[in-house]
Amino acid sequence: MSFNLSAWALRHRQIVLYIMLLFAVVGALSYTKLGQSEDPPFTFKAMVIRTNWPGASAEEVSRQVTERIEKKLMETGEYDRITSFSRPGESQVTFVARDSMRSSEIPELWYQVRKKISDIRHTLPPGIQGPFFNDEFGTTFGNIYALTGNGFDYAVLKDYADRLQLQLQRVKDVGKVELVGLQDEKIWIELSNTKLATLGLPLSAVQQALEAQNAVAAAGFFETASERIQLRVTGRFQSVEEIRDFPIRVADRTFRIADVAEVKRGFNDPPAPRMRFMGEDAIGIAVAMKDGGDILVLGKALEGEFARLQQTLPLGMELRKVSDQPAAVKTGVGEFVKVLVEALVIVLAVSFFSLGLRTGLVVALVIPLVLAMTFAAMYYLGIGLHKISLGALVLGLGLLVDDAIIAVEMMAIKMEQGYDRFKAASFAWTSTAFPMLTGTLITAAGFLPIATAQSGTGEYTRSIFQVVAISLIASWIAAVMFVPYLGDKLLPDLAKLHAAKHGGSAGGHDPYSTPFYRRVRATVQWCVRRRGIVILLTVALFVASVLLFRFVPQQFFPASGRLELMVDIKLEEGASLSATEAEVHRLEKLLKEQPGIDNYVAYVGTGSPRFYLPLDQQLPAASFAQFVVLAKSIEERERLRGWLIKVMNDEFPTLRSRVSRLENGPPVGYPIQFRVSGEHIDEVRALARQVADKVRENPHVVNVHLDWEEPSKVVILNIDQDRARALGVNTAELSRFLQGSLSGTSVSQYREGNELIEILQRGTPQERKALSLLPSLAVPTDSGRSVALSQVATLEYGFEEGIIWHRNRLPNVTVRADVYGKQQPASLTQQILPTLDPIRAELPAGYLLEVGGTVEDSQRGQKSVNAGIPLFIVVVLTLLMLQLKSFSRSAMVFLTAPLGLIGVTLFLLIFRQPFGFVAMLGTIALAGMIMRNSVILVDQIEQDISHGLDRWHAVIEATVRRFRPIVLTALAAVLAMIPLSRSVFFGPMAVAIMGGLVVATALTLLFLPALYAAWFRVKENEAQ
After folding, report:
1. Could you read off the pLDDT of 406-422 as tens digits, one per residue?
2. Domains recognised in the chain with CATH numbers
3. Alpha-carbon distance 43 to 379, whole Å?
4. Are 285 and 108 in contact (CB under 8 A)?
5. DSSP, residue by residue, 745-775
6. pTM for the full model?
7. Mean of the pLDDT values across residues 515-521?
8. What does the pLDDT look like over 923-955, one tens digit per residue?
9. CA-to-CA distance for 560 and 562, rounded, in angstroms?
């Protein structure tokens, strides 16, 4: 006699009860220990290599630095793309690893990148600074605070910021604390070159004297028989006043620094990128959680520390919250838990209503057990609670009741037919346990392409497969082990109840002889008799759904439900930080008057720190600023978005601006992008402008622009080399002199406690800011005398490239645009592409026109998922063959898988939901759900035939017997999706599954019997 797990469970009731209680306790404890976060862990496979070359133009940086680094990086072969920009004095190369690389392989790749760049360090131009490497792209600063103090000296504010940074670093689960918008303290020595020339005081004499006086140098030590005594020499600067009074001797004359220069203590001038909060200058304190931490635990700890730290600040200085990820996670997780509870209530209601109170109670008790088993497995595998895993739990909830409903329904039917409790409870094992297991594994396999997707998108959504697979396997274990035990305890004697209510024998009755089942039987018989019509009609509906699918809007990931709005401001390339800050002040005044805003923060000269994992971070630039506006509600966010778009168009028409919501999924940036690459910059730019003109013709796109457009202003000094040599002016020395006069040259460092304050020498404000005075600037010569700059050089005003973009070593210009209204980027891109065909047809050899943005990332994600479909097919066919043991039957069941597309297309169109990446995952998984029901029905038909029933009646009766469990499981799954359909992220997936299951259930009960009869040529008169 073969082993029967259900019978074993009934014979060992105490062990089963112990296992149930153990799972309940372990599951409950595991749930309380699951880490919570907003998004799943996600590896940013990008490294930035930054190199500075002071004094070089963008073209010089591009040729001498950027291209050499790019060439070396290409030798790794492990890149998806290598993008770079070159600015005057600055090179930044972004190496993006292959999307298919595993997260565990990335650290070794970063080591190889560092090694290769170190190998070419000696080939880079002398005078460069770096290269510097940054591979911590994924660090998320979930909590950001703003320290403001109107009226306080900035040095005092900075001192308090340092203290707060130290205190926050000590909080449990804090990984990193950084100060944002910090202005480094400087000591400026502003010398008048005209005055120095008049006094005959060489600039180099001032520099050398300061460097020599303030140097730290060893003075030796005394070694005695018993001890060593260090010798220290005093004389280093102890105050700014000492610097002012410092004497400089030239020949027989002595000057104080204060006689020839103004010495003052201050901060970066021009300022470094800075932060402003609610219209005030601020220092940001950004806090990142350590790996493996719980964001809610960290949030509680920070909340207490935040309250304590506020008490330590002087009156007038405030520490305020800018970003609070724990609060956002608590809200997000709370909403998903609410959806989970709603779905649970719906499933329980379906169970009680359709199965009766005591039968439904069996299902009601199994569901928490399955969830407990799922939580325990999630804890063991390190899967936390976040938007993906919680959505998967809701999705799994609609599926995990299937096996329990099938098992308890089978037990109830057998008891109605007169079976005793033990035999009825253990019958499901011999009848449906293995078809259920096959169906469960097929359903789980439907999510297999997500698990095998080797891409960032696949990594982001992988926990859908993990959680659903865990819950489905747990549900099967519960169905064959716990349901028999609970059914034995809770189910009444159904045969006696029926006899008492309707009369007849207490030995059992046929539950399928009721008027309802007679109508079901008649409907199935009609479909089998008219199998040709049913099959043709189904095929026609499938073809129609394929044709109508092109009308379903396409998307990648939907916008986030977070309350923040991002406002980007970009002035013309080469604009100063002061000009950018002036525009920031204008917008701040307008925001101050707007209701519905919780707070707003501006980052001038750079983008926001990554406070949200999928944030599309912006590069620092003096001509750029970014606002983060936190609305009080979603409704206010949408109102503010419309108002901001109008304000930016009306009040800031000369700026390039963008108002956007936060994204879900891997960051994309502008949804519509077209890239033009080629050898020559001018040709590439001309082609990109043609593309931009075509994009602008579409009425549904706005904010069309090039990422690399206008050149920057430049003043070129044409040196008369003969005259310069005759006067003793060296070109290199002249460049250093001009650098010192205009921007400042470091001459020493002032030490104060643990601070090192740079001492810089530069010209007076008049000499630095009046371009008209440049020709008369007194330039030192080798003889110690000075000559006017106009004697050795002529000035030429012109333009040069302010920035040079490369992609895979080719100059690249990207045409970018936003979407207007409710149109989807993928649909608009498809509309625009045909208009670009004439440009594409005339591209010179070696030039490229490529699609970027949402479409490219979506295709990359879909491609990685599609790569897993062959494995899905192999696994499903293997399971079908093991269960059905027939090529023919397996092929027939497999062909039912795509039919869910009928319902998917219908429901997406009716509910106006887009078909995005998550909906695509749901559609693939739907195939598994459909085949699950099909394999159980076909297996039931084969069992009936093996028990002696003719094929005609086997098809009809098997369908009638499977009608209620198939309808109930589908109803539970569909209704459980209703709460999830309200989710911005999972809504399209839920709608797709709802539509697919509704149609697929009808097809399983009506089309599949007709297909079986046609496939195997079943005739009605076979019984005779």
Report:
1. 888 888 777 877 778 88
2. 1-33+356-502 (1.20.1640.10), 43-137 (3.30.70.1430), 185-214+229-267+712-726+736-800 (3.30.2090.10), 517-551+868-1024 (1.20.1640.10), 563-663 (3.30.70.1430)
3. 21
4. no
5. EEEEEEEETTEEEEEEEEE-HHHHH-GGGGG
6. 0.81
7. 87
8. 887 888 888 888 888 888 888 888 888 888 899
9. 5
